[in-house]
Amino acid sequence: MSTAILDDVRAFVDTEVAPNAEEFDRAERLPRALLDRVGELGLWAPFLPAEVGGAGLDMVTLGRIHEEIGRGCSGLRSMLTVHTMVSWAVGRWGSDAQRDRWLPQLIKGETFGVFALSEPDSGSDASAAGTLAVPDGDGWVLDGRKKWITGGQVADVLLVFARSGQGMSAFLVPRDAAGVEISPIPNMLGTRSSMIAEVVLRDVRIGADAVLGPPGWAAGTVMTGALDLGRYSVACGSVGIIQACLDACVAYTSRRTVRDGQLRDLQLIRRKVSDMVTSARAARLLCEHAGRLKDAGDPATIMASWVAKYYASTAAATAASDAVQIHGANGCSPDYPVARLYRDAKIMEIIEGSSELQQTTIAEEAYREAA
Ligand SMILES: Cc1cc2nc3c(=O)[nH]c(=O)nc-3n(C[C@H](O)[C@H](O)[C@H](O)COP(=O)(O)OP(=O)(O)OC[C@H]3O[C@@H](n4cnc5c(N)ncnc54)[C@H](O)[C@@H]3O)c2cc1C
Questions:
Q1: What's the CATH code, domain 114-212?
Q2: Ranges of each domain in the chain
Q3: Residue 121 pLDDT > 80, yes or no?
Q4: Cβ of residue 188 lying under 6 Å from some atom of ligand 1
């Protein structure tokens, strides 16, 4: 693990992200200057190898970076997550020409990548996606509708999944391709600053060079790998939420007095605080385990990421609920960060595989192992 970069990220979060997260949440937008700062710090895709311009950062450190950003602002962490997924997909599955065209800009954040899989009528079951890719001369025509696309409002390139005959293919679609229409989705419950959008693809003509990975086989390749990394990032971001809840509660209960004493001296408060400490540590260790397996190239990382995300996201939802409770009415106001953490934590239980999908997948693995 590289600790030098973590010190910089912590300082960035403490001075530029966390103090402004409420404002970002209210504005439902992240300032361009903040996204540029992420680029200056080299955080957009530092895991890519040096030969394509990355820093070759290990996955454990990457996870700790996403935890730190998640501690400050889940909206920014969500943006980092989807951009990470797209950058990874191009690095892993791109042709030489695609890597040359996209990676240098993705690494610097000069091009922002988004992940477009979900649709109005398909979420958990990606195989039900209705967006179509039809061969047209030496290229393709895309038609369909993608919904809930994090960062969609500021996307430069969209990684779009579409049915192409028997299977699913992945396409790198430039934002300015004719027929791409993007509309903001306002007033989301949480991660409100992540500039979510709906994307309509109407007769979008793209060349054969837009296909990423094996045509017809994107589900088991590009999609699976990108979602695994996204799940890992969300797990790490959830650890950040638990840590932020803990920090807020320790500070608040040390100031607030009740019945001639401080809130921190009440046993029932201490129980909640100790649960936050324990779940933050346990979730962090599960993430680190998944990260180590990724660094070792061990396929067991896929299940480790499911487990880490399931545990961390549900623990974050519990921690955030307890944090609001501990803050009483103050916790329900925008004057303290816990209301935002509560709304953001709920989102973590839905994205990158909902808790129910994790429960069924993890149990399935248990039976497979037993057999
Ligand atoms: C803030 C936010 C950001 C997002 N960003 C993106 C993005 O950038 N790109 C993108 O492509 N998508 C994005 N999504 C969409 C997200 O991936 C989906 O919401 C998620 O996959 C769940 O799908 P769904 O909402 O359609 O719910 P559904 O699939 O309709 O599920 C509804 C409920 O049924 C449960 N359920 C579904 N199937 C099963 C099953 N087999 N067994 C048991 N229970 C089941 C689910 O757990 C859930 O509780 C985002 C969503 C949100 C809220």
A1: 2.40.110.10
A2: 3-112, 114-212, 219-370
A3: yes
A4: yes
Mean pLDDT of the chain: 97
Establish whether residue 191 lines the binding site of ligand 1, counting it when its CB lies within 6 angstroms of any ligand atom.
Answer: yes
pLDDT at 31: 98
pLDDT in tens, 51-88: 999 999 999 999 999 999 999 999 999 999 999 999 99
Active-site residues, by number, are: 352
The position carrying tokens 């921690």 is 319
Residue 89 phi, psi dihedral angles, 5° rounding? -60, -40
- Name the residue of 82, 118, 122, 362 to mutate for ligand 1: max ligand atoms within 8 A of Cβ: 118
For 274, phi then psi, to 5°, come to -65, -35
The encoded tokens of residue 34 equal 């903040």
Mutate to test the pocket of ligand 1, among 146, 351, 362 (most ligand atoms within 8 A of CB): 351
Q: Which fold has domain 219-370?
A: Butyryl-CoA Dehydrogenase, subunit A; domain 3 (1.20.140)
Average pLDDT over residues 23-36: 98
Place of tokens 């397996």: 293
Is 150 near ligand 1, meaning CB less than 6 Å away? yes
Distance from the CA of 22 to the center of ligand 1, in angstroms?
25
- Report the length, in residues, of the chain: 371
**Model confidence at 182: pLDDT above 80:** yes
Is the CB of 69 within 6 Å of ligand 1? no
The neighbour count for residue 156, using CB atoms within 10 Å, is 17
Q: Comparing 114-212 with 219-370, is the CATH topology the same?
A: no
Q: What is the pLDDT of residues 294-304, one digit of tens each?
A: 999 999 999 99
119 close to 129: Cβ distance less than 8 angstroms: yes
For residue 354 the two structure tokens come to: 């909902």
Give the confidence band of 166 by pLDDT, cuts at 50, 70, 90.
confident
Q: What is the pLDDT of residue 65?
A: 98
Burial bucket for residue 234 (CB in 10 Å: 0-12, 13-18, 19+):
buried
Whole-structure pTM value: 0.98
Residue 231's nearest CA partner among 294, 274, 168 is 294
Which residue lies with its CA nearest to atom 27 of ligand 1? Answer: 123
Q: Confirm or reject: Cβ of 149 under 6 Å from ligand 1.
A: yes
Percent over 90 (pLDDT), the chain: 96
Q: Domain 3-112 classified CATH 3.40.50.11240?
A: no
